[in-house]
Amino acid sequence: MKSVIITGANRGIGLETSLAFAKKGYKVFATMRDPDKATELKEHIEKDNLNISCHKMDVDSDESVQTTIGTILKENGPIDVLVNNAGIERHGTIEELDISHFKEVMETNYFGIIRCVKAVLSAMRKHGSGCIINVSSVSGHISNSPLSSYSASKFAVEALSEALAQEVKPYNIRVGIVKPGIIDTDMARDISTKDYTASRSPITERFSNLFKESLKHPTHASLVADKILEIAESDSWKLRHPVGPDAEPFLQWRASMSDEDWIDWNALSDDEWYAKVEQDFGLNARPDK
Q1: Which of 136, 151, 153, 192 is catalytic?
Q2: Taking CA atoms, which of 5, 131, 156, 263 is between 20 and 30 Å from 226?
């Protein structure tokens, strides 16, 4: 039986990924900071008799990652797949966001992946196979205010994954980067409902409105889970995998602009910005419409 470790598995993409792998016959080690909060996951486990075990693990902690993954490997042998999904987000302009928030996001989203990769890699290499899937984001290629801290962490994940893929291919270990667009998760909902009226920058509020409008036609987290499972089950060495109806359009949109055009677009007046969003994406993101 194949096995998988999934981080941040108590909700959203991590929860759906745990269910997808278990239903495919994998032994799933679902890790999270607080298993007591994994109520929905545990309900699915009991209802469908799924082979999922919940494990307390904080990806911010060297000791927690080494202890939890070390125990899993000792008791179950090499892991076939590692899904690095755990992530957090803090939003605000660079001027207004406290530096502690930048550190928090990087600690979880970037260093957390490094900790987990280092914990499984030796066993995968000795076994001569494995698959590591890192959940990045369209924000790993497109940087917008007020998501500078989140984007910076995802840019870092992209660079890390690209280097990792080069290092481990000789050992038959595949690396994949999953790049979701706007997905219906607690994180996206939080961005869409945040009150930015106190911010010095109008950019923050209109970006929230863009999320709010997009979530009127939500893309379920199970779509990302299905893509992660597809990558694990395939023999593909493809590195980057955009996911969701808006992911590839967003990436192509950014690619069509020079860096200077991108900066100018984001610096437009509110009326011009909303008009461009409606023209390019058919989204009327204006507030109070």
Answers
A1: 136
A2: 156
Specify the number of domains making up the chain: 1
Write out the two tokens for 204: 């923050």
281 Cβ partners below 8 Å, 6+ apart? 246, 249, 253
Any domain includes 256? no
CATH number reported for the structural domain that contains residue 229 in this entry: 3.40.50.720
Domain-located, residue 265: no
Query: Of 150, 151, 214, 227, which is the active-site residue?
Result: 150
Whether the model pTM is above 0.90: yes
> Is residue 154 annotated as a catalytic residue, yes or no?
yes
Among the listed residues 154, 179, 194, 227, the single catalytic one is 154
Indicate the DSSP class of residue 219: P
Calculated CA dihedral for residues 254, 112, 132, 174, nearest 10 degrees = 70
Task: Tell me the average confidence (pLDDT) per consecutive run of 10 residues in the chain, 289 residues long.
Answer: 97 97 98 96 96 98 98 96 96 91 98 98 97 97 91 98 98 98 80 59 76 82 97 97 94 93 90 88 78
Asked whether residue 53 is domain-assigned, the answer is yes
In a domain, 204, yes or no: no
Q: What range does the domain containing 54 cover?
A: 3-184+220-247
The 3-state DSSP class for residue 30 equals strand
DSSP per residue, 222-244:
HHHHHHHHHHHHS-----EEEES
